[in-house]
Please model this.
Amino acid sequence: MRQVAILGIGQTKVDEHWDKSLRELGGEACFDAMQDAAMNKMEALFVGNMLSPLIDGQNQLGAFFSDWIGFWGHEAVKVEAACGSGAAAFRAGVMAVASGEIESALVVGVEKMTDKAGHDITAALATAADADYEVDQGVSFVGINALVMRRYMHEYGWKHADFAPFSINAHANAMHNPHARLHMEITTQQFEKSNMVATPINLLDASPIGDGAAAAIIVPAEKVTSVPGRPRIVLAGSGSATDTIAVHSRKDPLFLSAAYASAKRAYEMAGVTPQEIDLFELHDAFSIMTALSLEACGFAERGQGPRLGLDNEIRPGGRVPVCTRGGLKARGHPVGATGMYQIVEVIQQLRGECAETQIQDAKIGMAQNIGGSGATVLTHILKVG
Amino acid sequence: MRQVAILGIGQTKVDEHWDKSLRELGGEACFDAMQDAAMNKMEALFVGNMLSPLIDGQNQLGAFFSDWIGFWGHEAVKVEAACGSGAAAFRAGVMAVASGEIESALVVGVEKMTDKAGHDITAALATAADADYEVDQGVSFVGINALVMRRYMHEYGWKHADFAPFSINAHANAMHNPHARLHMEITTQQFEKSNMVATPINLLDASPIGDGAAAAIIVPAEKVTSVPGRPRIVLAGSGSATDTIAVHSRKDPLFLSAAYASAKRAYEMAGVTPQEIDLFELHDAFSIMTALSLEACGFAERGQGPRLGLDNEIRPGGRVPVCTRGGLKARGHPVGATGMYQIVEVIQQLRGECAETQIQDAKIGMAQNIGGSGATVLTHILKVG
Model:
């Protein structure tokens, strides 16, 4: 594989974009990335999206967006791995450039969710789970995560309030991210009293859906000369792995084996250890997932994830800063776009563009995007270099 | 890019598989390919599928099939480009192996369509078109192709019967393919009198849907030592290109510019001309598409595609044999699987396994898979070598 660099980034605010169509939303992030890179020609487009067939009645988003942004003639394709679609599309773009087949790829993650009512969205999100053996039994996606969280609390003796620091940190960081959906700080008391969704998961354990798009441009690293005032950002590691699609099929439902495997691969490829990661944009779709991700990726012992939050280690300045731009919890979770938001946010940190939540001297950042309840996990490590 | 070889192939019959679930159907083709290659471990799985979110309520087919076939821990992802999904997944697998990132990829195209009623399928297939500017105006997918065919007949003066040889050839060839959905020879008279679908497209201009799955295994070419009695099949060329998603946006709705561009790229990469192609598995979703594909890929002059049929040039033994295993028209068109059926069929020809429809001394075969009405087109050239 030849090394690749990420040259331009773009994103929309995560919001209820009733004034923008699917094509306008995705196009905005693409144009933003192209402007950031001062490039207007790429050889291929990779789109990450989960729900457009169900929500927008639109398939074939490769050609769809290629047409909209004026990439006629070029290669374009959609990659789907449920909520892991964004990073899956990014990895496809990386492979295409790394193989030598193309010289530049634009990757966009996009999702327009708020045009449908809540029960439609709940049903659509459940397509990430096992239709035959989970969904047909009546369990929703949040329901599956609630069962995992209940079991975790039982096994390791944590109280619900012990997860509060994860959400508090995400909301605090989002205050300084203009692209975040939720701009409101929360307290432990609010966390405890929030409306119940699926016990023990309440509204402040869960990430909000939203409309959003984020994009980045991948090129061969050797072609990137330094941009004044900006470091060169290269891909150091990339790993992708799967687990059983149904949680009940796992020997240990409290261990994200695909997160472990994909992170291991990314660490090996990058030649780094967890201790060298300056920030970690993880997939906090629910607060329990923050704990499980930190454990699977080597930042905490099994069953000890919440300790990092309680000890203030996940805040900017802590040992392992997470969700530095708000995470899924407060930046928002436009499912197929989320993985690309994470990539964009890691790059913002490595460029030093994060002001109040800037991680000092950030040189190596990691992003981990999860599809389903840990079924598909992609980990990317980016570095200044 | 390092060169890749295709080592194993597998497929199910295209049929109404009411006795098989989506996972069983796709799994069957995967196991068939693994048995054919005498391999049981691959490093990644790429799935081509268009309709499972809409028909089966199932997303994340990468993890879904990886789980079913026992590939726990490995990378797995779905690629979607409407009816071009199969070849798009194949190209993703090629890139991943060609980049050096992985040493083996299993690619499966799978679609289970017949569990839903016809009007549901018509609506689902329309997601390949432009939801905002085509489908919302009330046009179906066959309706779009009917407009193109009517215009073509008007521009170039062809009668409907002039397209008969395309369907007659496909049906005749399918008689000898045990995996084909339709085993019935047809005559020009039957072609002319068939039930109208969307004038001028009648039932014998149109390919039937179906349930089906086809798979292949990709490995670095240098790792393949010759198998006794079997030639080594390598990828010679691969091209992927897009056009506007809506047909009405094209300057010339009668020219498949993405078919032209993707074939051009594949020819250049393979270093061959159309004259050197021994057989061409093209995307005959409708008879008009056969004419347009032959023209865009350099086998006929503009407007002269039907001449090749009338002159018997497309039959086995002709100048450019097409649909040698029945094509979409008679093998059947399980949309997201079709591109992989084409790859599998080209390999069967290059291996000399096609008995009555075997192309003598076939050394170079081409497969072209189309998403939407020419919006996404992927062309692959395989050769003995």
In short: Chain A touches chain B through 65 residues (CB under 8 Å).
